Structure to design on (1451 residues):
């Protein structure tokens, strides 16, 4: 009897197994929905009995997973038979035509095909098994039959040198016990001392350390794992011991073979377990080289398709490597003797196509060496590798090709081996069966061998039985379905015994490969084995049936917090377990009805899905699981968070290469969640390099490059959600180079150039620049030829005669220029006479009796022919002399024996082998100059102020100049200062007055000094004779600012001021003026003025209140007036924020700086030469003085006042009026000892670049390029006291230059200070200190002689007060806090004050001094503190072992 069951749901629109069967029953038409009209599931049971198919119906009243006891089919069959027939008749379609009859219900013999489908659907309709959670606590508590977890392989080959290990591991609750069978008989382990079983395991260990033969234990083993709920079985494990037999001894005769004949060297290895690996080598262990002529077959034999003479150069030995023993056995080698008609072996013919004919070997058609004949067959198992092999002989060596009859070779699985002699198909399946043939061919013919392949299959699983866990009263099934070729048989066992011999179980029913369980009970627990086998193998599977009754349990942690994002779909999980399977219900906030429907959906596994979260969904959710044994509940707290949103997204941008790009990404998120913003480039994580800056709301890319182009994604994420925004960055790069240049339309004076444009890199090409290079005048130098729009890629180029052209093209877009293209081929034009003459013709004298004629030579495109030369003509101007001429090949010619400074007419004409150029223009040049013969006379000096004088002189006659008058120049030097003992530099300085002038002003003089002055006339050759020396004295001026003005605040009541004398007194100091005012924020008090004597350099201010600060302004005075002032402020209180100070290296801005210099045109401006402002300049050494020389070559008419820091640097400036044409004027130099600041004026357009050129006294010339608007320019690495010449010119127009400026860096300055050692107050102070020290020493010696002790204040016991001197290691520092040098101390050349030090110091006698004296009764032996004595004396004071301690004791 076959029973068929079907379940269908009430929703007619859903198609399932029930609808499929209804269509089958009604011959394709849908059955009436009456059969599924109920809300409950309906059982349709069809019983096949004696060829009659009947249908019965029974309702499912029990909940899902627990079914009512089904009615006995045999008892109810007769009572419902008629009703079922009527129902089937009603379901049959009406009006069927002939040949389309409905299904026949009464049948004889086998059931109809759809009956098998119905059986399958009935099986699928049975209740599902319970899944045991992986929770260890549940796993350990539940009872479980045994399960095999680990076992040895079926064919278990072991190494005879090791102990035998047969694995068998199992789990179960309670833990299973183990026993074994050997060759289907019980294996008594206890009787064999060599055999043991591992603890808590079934693994067998056979130990041979005490002797025994492993071969005695070969056989078939099977493991049984048993507990009270059943028995599980392992596979039948076939144990075999590995064998590696020795090769039989044999004597092999030499193998004699004719050259060109085939040969097979047989290996015949000894049978091993497993089979050995075969390889061929010589007796000297050199591998045999294999190719398509000589190769090893799969059976291990070595095949020669044809033997050649070179094959007997070695012997051949077959080697077998055994896996388990890791040994290699070698067969006796074969010796090969080749018979040949040509005994000489020419290695050059090896592998040559004509090798055989050259050696006299007859060519043969192919024949198969393996396999024999024209056809063979081969069987392979499914899933294994199929290896087909064809080895053929022939001369020449045949090629092998493979084919499959009726189809192609499987390309994904087929591969060729052994030089195409073998075909391997991996993982063979049934579709790989068929006929394969190999084709061996050479030029003599071909031969084919057919191999018929049959694919068989050992059993393989279609549906492996799984463990079945049921609740009491539930139904279940075990399915064991396998396939194979031939079809495997299925055998069921229970607890290791055949199912037929097992005790009967009314709840169990076997239907072929399926066991059906109904209304299972606790007693139904057992382990079932399914064994499916055919002639090629077997499969054994264990599956247990376990019946559990467990009250509901919650598996998740209690009171979980779930945070979700607003408007999202979310699922609240409530994992539970119980048997029978509990029902689950959800409640919110402990109130209301079960949550299901609407916005909620409950899944079968108990999860609650909320389709769209709202704010009101926040709260506590309770899940309750219930079965017949009890209930359990858990709570989940749900919090709703605002979503993360990018409200300002990055936008697509287009940027030029090298610019800066910023991508915005501003995010709004829930404040209780931590936000992380990251970036992706092209959907990969972006590496933030040093060119990028990632901020909270943006990404900045500096210096954009082509590799930065791509899509950028901003990822704003929290632990709950994320938002993405993407933008694309397009980088405009320079275009790629043009390519494939081609010259066409070749003409005498033109050619067409065509090119292929390169990629424009996102920026359209605007222009193409065509350049050319010629190989005669400037080979390798490229010149611009023409420019074309970016829309063209072909142009006609105009060419010059006699040029060997080569062209290249450069593409230009808004970003820049491409790399030049590869050069084109060369093209030479024919020659012609020149059409122009050289340019820039000049005539200038280099000596007093010559004239050098120079010109700019013509380039290759203007030469027009070979042997370009120049015809140079000259004659004296206005003399009507005949022209002198000479032919020159270079670019200069020197005319000798000329009068001094005479004008000449000059012409230069170009000529080549094709003729002369046009008539040249006439240029006026001059012969060389000589030194001037006369000096200015009647030089008059008028003192304008303390730093400037006015000069007036008579002009010299023009014939005495002997050249072009450049300037009148005054040389002056400082002879002495009117201050006593003040050293001055007598280095000469100069001031130039360009043009034919009669007066000028010399400035930047030192006040209160004696000067001498001489004047000369200057032309292009140099200086003329000097005038008579004039002397003058500058009057007293105002002093420079006091140096080192220091403001200190030792306490809240007083402020101490200290300063040094001015670096430049500029007269006799009569005192100092101090102005100070108190201020507090914006409130300013009344200004107080204090005057001091010239010797006073300190002052103490009593503070009026401890809150206000003070601003001090100090200046020095002479009879002329007060000099520039220096300003400082008192320190800020500790609780007041200190404002940011200016850089300490910049001196303060002062007003009324003396010593300013101006150069002016007339004495009318003399009254305006006093300085008005002083800018901040870089720091200089405090003891340096600057001397300056200035020259100029252009006329100056304006007056300009220059500024500087007080007496630290000199400034040279030539004042000129602004010209109408493009020019550079008013070059200003502000030098110091090692640097100089340069500035100038010009009327060039914006963006013009300049070059500063300067030369030192050693004629070393340097240049500094200056970008536009980069003034002032600082020249560094200058040498102190060295004279430099300087000019500024345009980078693009070198001919436009400023006047030449001469300046000198400053040298060291020695201040005139009195010797402190001669001061009376210093002598008295030293005497008092010496007397005090003597008294202290006497007191020390008296106390030591009496043995008395006196207390010493130690650093750790009595801290020093703020008024105490500094203390370090028990010694005193007798210098003042600022290390201020004593007045009268010497000043070093570098400006530092050396502190006078005594040869003897009290500090040397303090604690911690080491090695100052020897120990032989020396001074250190009397005054060194004994550390160990201090430690033993406890609280007693240490001895006064030094004068310092004596001072403490007296204190």
């Amino acid at each position: 009897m076959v029973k068929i069951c079907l379940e269908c749901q009430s929703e007619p629109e859903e198609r399932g197994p029930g609808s499929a069967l209804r269509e089958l029953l009604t011959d394709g038409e849908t059955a009436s929905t009456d059969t599924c009209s109920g809300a409950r599931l309906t059982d349709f049971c069809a019983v096949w009995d004696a060829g009659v198919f009947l249908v019965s119906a029974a309702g499912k009243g029990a909940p899902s997973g627990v079914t009512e006891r089904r009615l006995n089919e045999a008892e109810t069959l007769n009572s419902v038979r008629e009703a079922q027939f009527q129902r089937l008749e009603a379901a049959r379609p009406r009006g069927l035509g002939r040949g389309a009859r409905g299904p026949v219900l009464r049948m004889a013999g086998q059931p109809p095909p759809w009956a098998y489908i119905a059986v399958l659907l009935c099986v699928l309709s049975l209740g599902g098994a319970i899944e045991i959670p992986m929770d260890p606590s549940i796993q350990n508590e539940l009872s479980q039959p045994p399960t095999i977890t680990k076992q040895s392989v079926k064919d278990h080959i072991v190494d005879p040198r090791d102990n035998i290990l047969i694995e068998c591991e199992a789990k179960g609750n309670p833990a299973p016990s183990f026993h074994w069978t050997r060759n289907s008989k019980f294996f008594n382990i206890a009787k064999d001392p060599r055999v043991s079983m591992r603890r808590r395991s079934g693994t067998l260990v056979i130990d041979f350390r005490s002797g025994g033969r492993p071969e005695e234990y070969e056989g078939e083993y099977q493991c049984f794992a048993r507990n009270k709920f059943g028995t599980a079985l392992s596979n039948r494990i076939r144990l075999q011991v590995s064998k590696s037999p020795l090769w039989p001894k044999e004597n092999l005769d030499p193998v004699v073979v004719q050259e060109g004949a085939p040969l097979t060297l047989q290996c015949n290895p000894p049978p091993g377990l497993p089979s050995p690996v075969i390889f061929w080598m010589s007796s000297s262990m050199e591998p045999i080289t294999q190719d398509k002529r000589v190769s090893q077959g799969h059976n291990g034999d070595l095949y020669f398709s044809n033997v050649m003479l070179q094959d007997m150069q070695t012997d051949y030995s077959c080697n077998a490597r055994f896996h388990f023993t890791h040994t290699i056995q070698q067969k006796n080698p074969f010796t090969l003797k080749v018979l040949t008609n040509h005994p000489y072996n020419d290695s050059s013919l090896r592998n040559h196509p004509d090798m055989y004919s050259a050696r006299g070997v007859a060519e043969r058609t192919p024949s198969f060496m393996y396999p024999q004949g024209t056809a063979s067959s081969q069987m392979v198992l499914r899933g294994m590798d199929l290896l087909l092999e064809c080895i053929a002989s022939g001369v020449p060596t045949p090629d092998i090709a493979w084919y499959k009859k009726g189809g192609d070779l499987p390309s994904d699985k087929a591969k060729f081996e052994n030089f195409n002699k073998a075909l391997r198909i991996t993982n063979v399946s049934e579709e790989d069966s068929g006929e394969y043939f190999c084709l061996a061919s050479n030029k003599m013919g071909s031969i084919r061998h057919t191999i018929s392949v049959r694919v068989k299959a050992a059993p393989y699983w279609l549906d492996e039985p799984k463990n079945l866990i049921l609740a009491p009263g539930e139904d279940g099934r075990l399915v064991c379905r396998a396939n194979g070729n031939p079809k495997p048989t299925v055998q069921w066992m229970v607890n290791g015994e055949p199912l037929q011999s097992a005790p009967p179980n009314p709840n169990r029913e076997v239907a072929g490969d399926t066991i059906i369980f109904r209304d299972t009970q606790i007693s139904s627990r057992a382990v079932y084995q399914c064994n499916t086998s055919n002639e090629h193998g077997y499969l054994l599977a264990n599956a247990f049936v376990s019946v559990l009754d467990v009250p509901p349990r919650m598996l998740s942690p209690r009171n979980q917090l779930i945070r979700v994002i607003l408007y999202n779909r979310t699922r609240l999980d409530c994992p539970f377990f119980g048997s029978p399977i509990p029902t689950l219900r959800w409640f919110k906030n402990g109130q209301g009805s079960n949550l299901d429907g609407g916005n909620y959906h409950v899944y079968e596994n108990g999860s609650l899905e909320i389709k769209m979260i709202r704010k009101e969904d926040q709260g506590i959710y309770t899940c309750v699981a219930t079965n017949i044994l009890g209930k359990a509940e858990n709570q989940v707290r749900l919090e709703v968070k605002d979503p993360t949103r990018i409200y300002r997204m990055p936008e697509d941008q287009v940027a030029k290469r090298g610019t800066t790009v910023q991508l915005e990404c501003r995010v709004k998120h829930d404040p209780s969640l931590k936000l992380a913003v990251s970036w992706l480039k092209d959907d990969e994580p972006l590496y933030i390099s040093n060119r990028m800056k990632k901020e909270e709301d943006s990404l900045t890319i500096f210096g954009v490059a082509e590799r930065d182009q791509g899509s950028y994604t901003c990822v704003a994420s929290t632990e709950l959600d994320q938002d993405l925004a993407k933008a694309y960055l397009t980088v405009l790069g320079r275009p790629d180079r043009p390519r494939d240049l081609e010259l066409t339309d070749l003409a005498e004076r033109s050619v067409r150039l065509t090119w292929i444009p390169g990629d424009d890199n996102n920026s359209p090409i605007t222009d193409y620049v065509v350049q050319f290079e010629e190989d005669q005048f400037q080979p390798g130098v490229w010149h611009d030829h023409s420019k074309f729009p970016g829309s063209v890629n072909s142009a006609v180029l105009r060419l010059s005669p006699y040029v060997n052209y080569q062209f290249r093209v450069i593409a230009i877009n808004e970003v820049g220029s491409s790399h030049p293209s590869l050069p084109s081929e060369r093209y030479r034009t024919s020659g012609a006479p020149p059409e122009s003459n050289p340019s820039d013709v000049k005539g200038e004298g280099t000596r007093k009796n010559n004239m050098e004629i120079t010109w700019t030579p013509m380039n290759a495109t203007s030469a027009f022919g070979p042997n370009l030369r120049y015809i140079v003509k000259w004659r004296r101007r206005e003399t009507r002399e005949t022209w002198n001429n000479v032919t020159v090949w270079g670019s200069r010619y020197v005319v000798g024996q000329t009068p001094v400074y005479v004008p000449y007419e000059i012409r230069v004409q170009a000529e080549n082998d094709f003729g002369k150029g046009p008539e040249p223009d006439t240029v006026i040049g001059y012969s060389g100059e000589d030194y001037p013969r006369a000096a200015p006379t009647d030089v008059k000096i008028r003192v304008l102020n303390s730093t400037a004088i006015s000069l007036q002189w008579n002009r010299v006659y023009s014939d005495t100049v002997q050249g072009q008058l450049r300037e009148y120049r005054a040389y002056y030097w400082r002879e002495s200062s009117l201050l006593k003992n003040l050293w001055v530099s007598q280095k000469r300085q100069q001031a130039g007055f360009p043009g034919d002038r009669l007066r000028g002003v010399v400035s930047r003089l030192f006040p209160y000094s004696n000067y001498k002055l001489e004047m000369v006339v200057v032309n292009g050759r140099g200086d003329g004779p000097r005038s008579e020396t004039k002397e003058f004295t500058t009057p007293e001026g105002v002093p420079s600012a006091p140096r080192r003005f220091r403001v200190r605040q030792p306490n809240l009541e007083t402020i101490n001021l200290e300063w040094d004398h001015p670096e430049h007194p500029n007269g006799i100091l009569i005192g100092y003026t101090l102005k100070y005012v108190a201020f507090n924020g914006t409130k300013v008090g009344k200004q107080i003025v204090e005057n001091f004597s010239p010797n006073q350099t300190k002052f103490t201010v009593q503070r009026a209140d401890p809150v206000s600060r003070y601003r001090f302004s100090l200046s020095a005075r002479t009879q002329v007036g007060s000099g520039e002032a220096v300003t400082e402020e008192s320190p800020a209180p500790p609780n007041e924020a200190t404002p940011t100070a200016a850089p300490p290296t910049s001196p303060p801005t002062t007003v009324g700086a003396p010593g300013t210099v101006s150069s002016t045109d007339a004495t009318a401006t003399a009254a305006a030469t006093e300085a008005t402002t002083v800018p901040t300049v870089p720091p200089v050494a405090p003891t340096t003085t600057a001397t300056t020389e200035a020259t100029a070559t252009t006329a100056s008419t304006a007056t300009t006042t220059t500024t500087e820091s007080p007496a630290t640097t000199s400034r040279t400036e030539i004042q000129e009026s602004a010209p109408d044409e493009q020019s550079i004027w008013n070059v200003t130099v502000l030098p110091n000892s090692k640097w100089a600041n340069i500035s100038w004026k010009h009327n060039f357009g914006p963006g013009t670049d300049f070059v500063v050129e300067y030369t030192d006294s050693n004629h070393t010339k340097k240049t500094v390029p200056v970008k536009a608007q980069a003034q002032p320019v600082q020249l560094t690495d200058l040498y102190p006291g060295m004279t430099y010449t300087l000019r500024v010119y345009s980078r693009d127009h070198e001919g436009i230059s400023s006047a030449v400026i001469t300046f000198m860096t400053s040298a060291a300055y020695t201040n005139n200070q009195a010797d402190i050692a001669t001061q009376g107050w210093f002598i008295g102070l030293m005497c008092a200190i010496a007397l005090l020290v003597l008294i202290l020493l006497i007191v020390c010696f008296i106390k030591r002689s009496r043995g008395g002790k006196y207390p010493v204040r130690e650093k750790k016991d009595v801290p020093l007060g703020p008024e105490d001197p500094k203390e370090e290691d028990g010694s005193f520092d007798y210098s003042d806090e600022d290390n201020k040098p004593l007045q009268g101390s010497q000043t070093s050349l570098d400006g530092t004050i050396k502190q006078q030090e005594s040869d003897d110091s009290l500090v040397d006698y303090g604690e911690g001094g080491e090695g100052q004296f020897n120990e032989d009764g020396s001074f250190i032996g009397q005054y060194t503190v004994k550390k160990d004595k201090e430690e033993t004396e406890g609280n007693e004071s240490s001895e006064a072992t030094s004068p310092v301690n004596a001072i403490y004791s007296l204190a």
Observations:
- The longest helix spans residues 1320-1346.
- The chain has a mean pLDDT of 78.
- DSSP finds ten helices and 101 strands in the chain.
- The CA atoms of residues 676 and 717 lie 5 Å apart.
